[in-house]
Write a structure and sequence with these properties.
It is a single chain. Strands 1-3-2 form a 3-stranded antiparallel sheet. It folds into 2 domains: 91 residues, Orthogonal Bundle (Arc Repressor Mutant, subunit A), CATH 1.10.10.10; 56 residues. It starts with 14 loop residues before the first helix and ends with a helix. By secondary structure, the chain is mainly alpha-helical. It is built from 7 helices and 3 strands.
Length: 187
């Protein structure tokens, strides 16, 4: 009477999108080294022998894998056992069956942590051009230094003006003396 739940695949951004962005095309069959090591640690003896006999580069049929096991270990497992192990390894994600009846080992991509991602040249150049913002105390000290320099310049200008006035007074006094002498001569 109860109907089985109709589950639909929900699309959301997550692991598969991240793997695609990282350049991993076949995200459904992605296997990282840690996950592979964990799955391999739980394998039975015959499953490990089957996994060791599955090639990475070529696709082999189950009887070829059984012959490889016989060549490597000397024991000859039955084809049904090899096929069962291959199916369980496929369910674990350690081997793939791209073509029906032909098996290949999943390649593990090693993740190398980047040392340090260098910023593009423009960003680095812009950072060099933009000085760091000074703190309030640094700004206040810069203003104080500028004011002291300005005060020294104002004092220098005031001294120059005083000297110029004294020279003008001396010249004016000499002119008055000359004027009185000329008046005295003209009388």
């Amino acid at each position: 009477m109860s109907e089985p739940a109709n589950h639909r695949k929900v699309y959301a951004r997550g692991l598969f999108d991240g793997l695609r962005k990282a350049g991993i095309v076949d995200v459904e069959e992605f296997m990282n080294a840690a996950k592979m090591k964990q799955v391999e640690s739980g394998l039975t003896g015959i499953a490990r022998k089957v996994l060791d006999a599955v090639p990475i580069a070529d696709q082999w049929q189950a009887h070829t894998i059984a012959n490889e096991i016989k060549r490597l270990t000397g024991s000859a497992p039955e084809i049904k056992i090899v096929t069962g192990c291959l199916e369980s390894l496929k369910a674990s994600g350690l081997v793939r069956e791209r073509v029906r009846g032909k098996w290949i080992k999943v390649v593990v991509r090693e993740y190398v942590e980047p040392e340090e991602i260098a910023a593009p040249a423009k960003v680095a150049e812009l950072r060099k051009q933009q000085p760091e913002q000074p703190t309030a105390r640094e700004l206040l000290s810069q203003v104080a230094v500028a004011m002291m320099d300005l005060a020294a310049k104002v004092e220098d200008v005031a001294n120059e003006i005083d000297k110029a006035e004294k020279r003008n007074e001396e010249k004016t006094a000499k002119l008055r003396q000359l004027q009185e002498l000329l008046r005295g001569l003209g009388q």
